[in-house]
Request: fold
Amino acid sequence: MIFRLVSCAALFFILATPSWGEKGYMVLSVKDTEGHPLRGVQLGIEGIGTSGLTGSDGKVRVRLGSAAEEGDYATLIIESSPKGRDYVMISPWDRRREWGAKAEDPYDKGLADFYDRNYPKASSEFQKSLSEREEKLSVAKDQAAEAAFFLGTSLYSEGKYQKSADAFLKCQELRPDDLYVLYTRALSLSDAGDYDTAKALSDKALTIAERTLKPDDPVLATALDNAGHLLVLKNEPTAGEALYRRAIAIDKKSLGPINHNLAASLNGLGVSLENQHKFAEAKSAYDEAISMDDAILGTDNLESASYRNNRALLLDQMGNHEMAEQEFRGLLALREAAQGPEHPAVAATLQALSRTLIEEQRLGEAEPFALRALKIDEEVFGPDDPRIGSALYQLATLLSMEGKYLEAEEDLNRVLEIREKADGPESPSYAEALTELAWVLVKGGRLAEAEQRCRLSITISQLKLQESDPSLALRWEQLGVILSMQKRSLDAQPAFEKALRFARESLGPDHRITRRIEAEVAHPPIF
Reply:
């Protein structure tokens, strides 16, 4: 409890020293300036307690109000003095001076000088104390920021992306414009599925970098990489490609032709090109990134592993399933050893391997991988995360191929719920799930329902996809097949013709899908 000194006209002086007694009471010890106990002084605590007379030992026990707590600011008052005497309370200067002479901390010295009313000296000591404490506060903030940053990094390495982002937020609060903190939090958020917040952070980092850094600074290249990554995730691969190409030019100029930053930029470029279906260019970018990082870090590093994963996905998409499978099995072994069997990166590799095996019609081998990937993702991300939608979608495709139509339909309806919530009912991801559900309904003989889902998928796709996207060709072909199965050949023919136009534009005249649709146009299928 802190007490304020109160004076009144008097010839005699006392020292009143408070201490805590039993709960709810304060013991006041009253002495004269010579240290002798004073009897008969009525002391009280203004506003928050009662008063009482000191005894022969100079002490009085005063009851405190219920609101009083240790550390409160309060005022001691002299309500009455023995007859013929007037007392005034003073600071216990002798003890204070003795303590002040021994004090080494500038704050304590300042207090001693302050109570002696030596204000110039007190101000000087308090200024020293303030400077010292500000420096300590700065060091403490830096240490807290470092601890939060490494906590976020460690959690990210565990695959706990949302918790990682929360830790990076604590670091960001202490370092609001630190580019690297902004990057790492954006990465955690994007891996946690919060693309909007991640993009806002990435854009902020790029704005700061472009305003404060030189045009050839490699840190600017990193900002461009991160912004490009978020653009690709937000389905803007062309804009992402432009940023990656800027980053590559900076990396080559500032760091030379072989460096880790350049490899990362090349990998990002490959992703943006793949999303534009520029497969040959994308593979070339991946190959260069992998070769570069292998030379720098060795062949069994997780950075190159992520680039290899992207290349294997591309190989699978290009129809080279055998090479993709070989790559995925090697990546699975590496990631299980380095990151543990329950890491989300392991789940992603399991899912990719399952998809390759499905393409090779090895359904019995694919299903255990698909189920294991789904289990890991549900444990890590929860039941409604968009990644669960992707794992369920793949499992549903597999179940449909195995003839388990009701199970596949159930999973796909759950996928639609997840994607509608995450991306909206007019998103490409929602259209993709509608297309797969339509095939399941076709196989179950429910053609009218299948046509409805297919037409809705085409409507969304025409609004959201570029004409160079092969998905448009496949969805028009699907409609043609469904209409043919309903013996509506006159309606089916225009659908096949539209499918062929989109296939030639997106895949080229010699692609196997283009040739298949050409045959359907020439000789409409009969069911």
Summary: Residues 1-18 have pLDDT under 50 and may be disordered. The two ends are 93 Å apart (CA to CA).
